[in-house]
Amino acid sequence: MGKYSLKFDREKMDVEIPEESLLGVLESRQVPCAATEEEAVRKALENPIGSPRVSEKVKPGEKVCVVTCDLTRAWQHTQVYLSLLVEEIKRSGAKDEDIFFLSGTGTHRDQTPEEHRALLGEELYKRYKIYDHHSTRDEMTDFGKTSYGTPVRINKKATDADHVILTGGVVYHFMSGWGGGRKAVLPGISSYETVMANHVLALNPPPGKGRNRVCRSGNVEGNLIHLDMVETTSKLKPSFLLNVVMNASGKIGWAFAGDWQKAHEAAMDVVDSVDAIDISQKADLVVASACGFPKDINLYQTSKTIFNAEDAAKPGGSVVILSACSEGFGNEEVQTMLRDFKNSDERESELRREFTIAKHVGYCIGETAKYYDFHLVTKIEPSLLEGTGIKVSKTFEEALGKIHAQRGKALTTWLMPQGANTLPKLAG
Description:
The protein is built from 14 helices and 20 strands. It is α/β, with parallel strands linked by helices. It has 2 domains: 2-29 and 280-426, LarA, C-terminal domain (2-enoyl-CoA Hydratase, Chain A, domain 1, Alpha-Beta Complex), CATH 3.90.226; 37-274, 3-Layer(aba) Sandwich (Rossmann fold). The longest helix has 15 residues, at 357-371. The radius of gyration is 22 Å and the shape is globular.
């Protein structure tokens, strides 16, 4: 019997798995990266991909709009890379008054001055204007429709500028394949109608047909959400892009600058080189930790682990997720989708009526419970998940006992200690 210690909340939980059943332990790779965050960003800005340096593109007197994330993406260490980006822009002779920031809030709430200061850092906050994008209130520029039927309406503050520079961090995204790149525009600075029309592409067109599973983490091939985002961003014609990738220590390990598509693709490749793990087969049982606090703080955050673990499990197989969820569901819409709608058909109807990311997360978690033997080792009270199809246990031993009682003990098993980060990919 092999004994493993997996993160759970702020502690660890011991897991025992028969060695003869274990196919392997799926963990992210250690890939060499820059020694410091500043080194990574400077190197990228000085060696752009498919583009001249931004200081060579901007001319004195031209208006520059730098699209940055909102505070929900502060893990990207925006203060580090934005200050170095501005330093590079200023090499062109641009004046402070010709540079401004537009926070790509998508459909999120407005931010406070303190949150703007946290994004930019004290020095940039004092010197430059920063605006929040308002998806329902701001004046937009209309670019017609994409070939997928999405009305393209983008914030006029950006479209009126001579240069739009996109920034952001690149991680896997459960709908668009990867974050970063084109997402700074859609949903970042697009109208509410544009965002909703794009995101509903995560569902198959005919009602009742559920998720479009091509729209998933680590995939852009045929991914309609991604392709629609790319087409939308192409209409804006951004001048430049700066994207970062975090290392295992949560610091900027890699940065990529230049052409908004080519540089983003290079960042995607690095994420894959670290977190995509090839598997030769799917297993009867997948055991995954959500990586402990804060990644397992609630069920909403745990969704990344759930969807990653699915990719390593056989259809109908057992999935055990270790996630404390000390703050419960973590999102009212996730809770409503799982508790108030009793099956996938009802949830899908609600999602088509009014699509939101949180509702989609709730819907997808419900689908996991429908198509897999889904067990959650958690601090959530079992009564809160009654009727959802999710089987709740307080310990791993309890969950495993339920699985063995139902399916026997001879179960091939993958173990995922870093379930929130690691993406299993079936070879071929």
